[in-house]
Fold this protein.
Amino acid sequence: MSVVLVTGAAGGLGSAVCERFASGGWDVIATDRPDARAATGDWIPADLLDVEAIREMVAQAVALYGRLDCVVNAAGLWTEGPSDATSEDEWDRVVGVNLKAAYFVSSAAIPHLESTGGSIAMISSDAGIQGNAGAAVYSASKGGVSNLTRALALELAPRGVRVNAVCPADIETPMLAGQARDFGDGDPEGYYAKLRAAYPQGERARFLQPGEVAEVVWFLAQPAAAGVTGANWSIDFGLSAGI
Ligand SMILES: NC(=O)c1ccc[n+]([C@@H]2O[C@H](COP(=O)([O-])OP(=O)(O)OC[C@H]3O[C@@H](n4cnc5c(N)ncnc54)[C@H](O)[C@@H]3O)[C@@H](O)[C@H]2O)c1
């Protein structure tokens, strides 16, 4: 049986990824913050801002089934706001979870993925491909994730490990609801409407469902995707197609 380790597994996208792999017959190991709890999979909590905790979590995950076939780095934090009012703490938390943790989870998993011919999936964003006005820290973290994906793919190709990213636009998850609540000036519907106005679909614009993104993540882990590595796969209704 193949084994996947999913970070952010209690979150909107992470839980959909866990469900997709479980329904495909994989063993799922779920990790998220100690105060959270994933609904699907074997549960190993860890604070991803702590690199030692990351290494311990990956070691425990490998010990559980004795193998690892895929890592999905789905943990993440959003922030937005003027760059002349961003605290160092905010930068450290957002870049720490989105970029540094994705790197160190992947790093700890490399030898185990090498022995199974496995793969890594990063969750980047349309903000990893283009800058999002008002979200410089988040865009910097996701731009880092997208280029990390390319560099790791080249580094690990000789060792038989594939590395890809998906770059979704807005997904209906607790993160998006939190954005509208925290940054919508008391008008979450207005916040959503502004986001939808950026899409090329006009009146037909909508947000992604987590399962639509999980389906692509699932595909990237399959033998059918053996030729796909170093890709940043946009799932954004064409939002970034014009760059
Ligand atoms: N929702 C969107 O619109 C959207 C769009 C593009 C990309 N993404 C990306 O998708 C991924 C999943 O986001 P989501 O929408 O499911 O958000 P979410 O908030 O529902 O889930 C994120 C999860 O990450 C976990 N996490 C945060 N800090 C952590 C830490 N220090 N240690 C361990 N876990 C931690 C949270 O507890 C949470 O369960 C993120 O990388 C996000 O940036 C989201």
In short: The two ends are 41 Å apart (CA to CA).
